[in-house]
Each structure stands twice: as C-alpha cells, then as structure tokens.
Write a structure and sequence with these properties.
17% helix, three-stranded antiparallel sheet, 4 helices
C-alpha cells in the first residue's frame, strides 16, 4: 500500500496497515481507511505498455490516466523511476529566521576581523595599542589681523624753567625760547616756546600766568598769533597731569600762511594763584601722529616747579 503524508507531502510506497507515522517528518498518518489508495491503470502517452512501478512485477500496466477528486487529500504517485525518493521539503519560517541570524553573525565576525586589523603591537611587548585615526578639523577662514604701526617716541632732553616754575622734557633737536608779556604790569605772563627748527608750523608752548583761563582762551591765543577761521572741535574734556586735574580744549584754524592747523590747549589752576597752560599746534594731517610720537611724551613729563609764580 501507499501512504501520502498530508503534513510534508512525502509518499511512502512501503506502508502497510501497521504504519502510523510518516518516516519523513514523524507526523501521524490519518485513518488508514481514508488514505488507502488503489492505483488505477494508466496508459503511457506514446501508446506503449509500461509496467507499474508500484504493482507486483509482471502485472498489467496502467490502462487509464490517473485522476483524483479535488480536495480528496490524495497525492498523485511519482513518475516511474522515482519510487522511494523524497519530495523537496518545504521551507519553514524557522529556516528563514535562522538564515537571517547567520547573516548577522557573519557581519559581526567581519567587523571584528577589520577592527583587529587596525591594532598594532607596541614594541613587541605584547601590549596591544589601538591606532588612533586623526579626525580632520573643519577649516575656517581666519580673519586677517590689521597690525598698527609701532610708534617710537622721540628722544627727549630735560628743560628746567629758569625761575623754577616748571620742568618738562622736549626733543633734543628742538629749541626753547622764553618770552614775557606785561612784564612791567601787575600780572606778568611767562611763555616758553619749544619749536622744531625744520617745521615752523609745529610748536609746544607753556604759559604761566596769574590770570584765569577758560575754553574760549584757545581762540584768543590763536587769533593773537594771526590765525583765522577758528572752529572748536567738540566740548571740553578732562585729563590728569602731574597729579592735577586739567581741562582740554581742541580746535582747528588757518595760519597766516594758509596752512590748516590743529591747536589743543590744556590748562589748570594751581593753589588758586597761578594758571598753567600748554598749547600744542601742528598741521591737521599730522597732529594725531605727532601727538603719539612727540606731544604726549612731553605732556606726561611736565612737572610743577617750586616757584608758583
């Protein structure tokens, strides 16, 4: 008899009435009365007679094609020559998942091999050192720094007022001239002029007078020297010089020769007796540079003398 397994499709040609389980998958057969198959006779396509591989040797061949009712659960017998062979097993979901796990395991193994290849031995002492991979840092365009030119102050020499009213330092190639105004009056004024012989429009004056000065005194000073078109630049600011508070006034004007000049006046009242004032004059396009190089060192070197008047 022939038994066909409804679970895996295996056809067992050696089954008998005592066969209960499928030899292929181990699942039990249904009731024998339902699965007993009587093999009909079959005629080959070419019209010749062929002995049935499932009948005893020498019996008559199949007389008609095999037919089975749809849904009967009967699996057709295999063609001649395939008796006892197993049909291809159906792939289950478990096999699919196992294949995926195997693939993942291979990928992990490959990653481990590549990581091991990136290690080197340190000096042959058995210490495994990992090769550091440098990460390139992003390139950023750096702004170009603007370097200001270094200003070197000019060498200065000391000047002591003959009447001990003040002292100051001035450039060695400059000359110092002392003049007195209203010398025979009640309030004489002493003016010391420091001038560069090669630049007639540049000078540094120190005025010592008992008279009080204010922000308008700069304009009077310029006009007394022949200057015109005076314009005050901004308001009055403060500065600390020789331990005293000074007032600072700046303006522009035109000299008698038509040269545009800048004038700055610094003044203070000392002991409510004497007014000290410094006047800085230079060309408008050179005033800032000369202030850093010459005027500022001269102002910072100023010191009061022992004689207040």
């Amino acid at each position: 008899m022939i038994q066909s397994c409804i679970h895996c499709g295996f056809i067992n040609g050696n089954a008998d009435e005592h066969t209960i389980f499928c030899p292929n998958c181990g699942e039990p057969y249904p009731a024998l009365n339902d699965m007993t198959v009587q093999v009909p006779q079959m005629a080959p396509r070419d019209g010749t007679s062929v002995a049935s591989p499932f009948a005893p040797y020498g019996t008559s061949p199949y007389a008609q094609p095999y037919s089975a009712d749809r849904g009967s659960g009967v699996v057709p017998p295999p063609p001649p020559g395939l008796r006892g062979t197993r049909p291809p097993a159906r792939r289950s979901m478990g096999g699919f998942v196992g294949g995926m796990l195997l693939g993942l395991g291979l990928l992990l193994l490959l990653g481990t091999v590549l990581a091991a290849a990136a290690l080197t031995r340190n000096g042959g002492n058995g210490v495994v050192a990992q090769v550091a991979t440098a990460t390139p840092s992003p390139t950023h365009a750096r702004p170009t720094a603007t370097v200001s030119p270094t200003v070197t102050p000019v060498p200065l020499v000391s000047y002591q007022d003959p009447s001990q009213r003040f002292s100051v330092r001035y450039p060695a190639n400059w000359s110092a001239t002392v003049s007195t105004t209203n010398s025979d009056g009640e309030f004489p004024a002493y003016l010391t002029t420091f001038r560069d012989a090669g630049a007639s429009s540049m000078l540094f004056d120190v005025l010592v007078t008992p008279q009080r000065l204010n922000s308008g005194s700069l304009k009077s000073f310029v006009q007394n020297g022949g200057g015109t078109n005076f314009q005050q630049s901004g308001g009055t600011t403060n500065a600390t010089i020789a331990g005293s508070d000074w007032r600072v006034v700046t303006g522009t004007f035109t000299s008698v020769n038509g040269v545009p000049l800048t004038a700055q006046m610094l003044y203070t009242r000392r002991d409510n007796i004497t007014t000290y004032a410094m006047f800085l004059i230079a060309r408008q396009d050179q005033f800032t540079a000369l202030s850093q190089k010459t005027f500022t060192p001269m102002v910072q070197s100023f010191a009061f003398g022992s004689n207040p008047a």
